[in-house]
Amino acid sequence: MWSLLFNILLILLSVLVLWGGAVWIVESAARIARRLGLSDLVIGLTVVAIGTSSPEFAVTVGAALKGQGDISVGNVIGSNIFNLGFILGGVAMVRAIATSRTMVMRDGGVLIAITLLLLLFFLDLHIARWEGMILLALLVLYIGSLLYFREAIEDAPPGEFRWYEVPRLLIGLALVIGGGHFMVEAAVALARMVGISEWAIGVTIVAAGTSAPEFATSLVAVLRGRHGISAGNLIGSDIFNLLGVLGLAATIRPMTVDPSVYSSLWMLAGMVALVVIFLMRTGWSLSRWEGALLVLINLIRWVLDFRS
């Protein structure tokens, strides 16, 4: 009984920590971007995206070091599908997300190209060290191009830049990562108490928990009108996961995967294409009903996963 109450309390506390950390991230990131002459979108695609992808980084690289290729690659692909379906769709259901032609055509196009490249790399169900190094090189090239070809700065965020914005951003990232970790630990403990299988816990609670930083940050950003940070965080996280996380894991240790991973990669390609189509057809924004459809598609995928 006490264990049940403790885990419920820990989940509630983790949610509060996640929310508070996300608020600090959004506010500080917007002011840092303004100070550096960068747009919300660029800061969302880089600093915020890389920071909120830390849980995926830890899980994927750790699995690669242990020779668990299916877990390593599956975590990246599953997390990206979750980001585009449940998180992007869920945030859009709360409030329609406004993006820009630049983000959709440039960053959406980059994400599609990377996914197609990975389909080519995994044709033999293996990713070699040299392929991982190519992915890392593409990440450096992408980030460099974002900083070099910077777009016009959006509206200035409320408040002036202060010296503590950088440490506050780092503390905010630590809070959302820590909050997500403890939320997963407590949720897994509760699931085991009610008899849910380890596999079901992995594809639901753990998948959702590692994406909790992206969800909290994107939701807070869109509620505060920082759409560039919200959308940039999710698209940037997906790009960083595929190029940086998967690239580093393959460079450390080449991996062979199960054929089911390849089918999941096709699912990711379809999700990316669908999101880009949605954004193009509605004036570079994602409406509530489109967000609901993305969530529904992912729910169906989860049901099929359980049945299989």
UniProtKB/TrEMBL annotation:
Gene Ontology BP terms: intracellular calcium ion homeostasis
Location(s) in or outside the cell: Membrane
Bilayer topology annotation: Multi-pass membrane protein
GO molecular function per UniProt: calcium channel activity; calcium, potassium:sodium antiporter activity
Broad class of the protein's primary localization: membrane
A GO CC term assigned to this protein in UniProt: plasma membrane
UniProt KW keywords: Membrane, Transmembrane, Transmembrane helix
Pfam family, one: Na_Ca_ex
Regions annotated as coiled coil: none
Transmembrane region(s): 6-26, 38-65, 77-98, 110-127, 133-149, 169-193, 199-223, 235-255, 261-279
Annotated ranges, domain Sodium/calcium exchanger membrane region: 8-144, 169-297
Source organism, top-level taxon: Bacteria
Record-given protein name: Cation:H+ antiporter
Gene source species: Thermoflexus hugenholtzii JAD2
Lineage: Bacteria, Bacillati, Chloroflexota, Thermoflexia, Thermoflexales
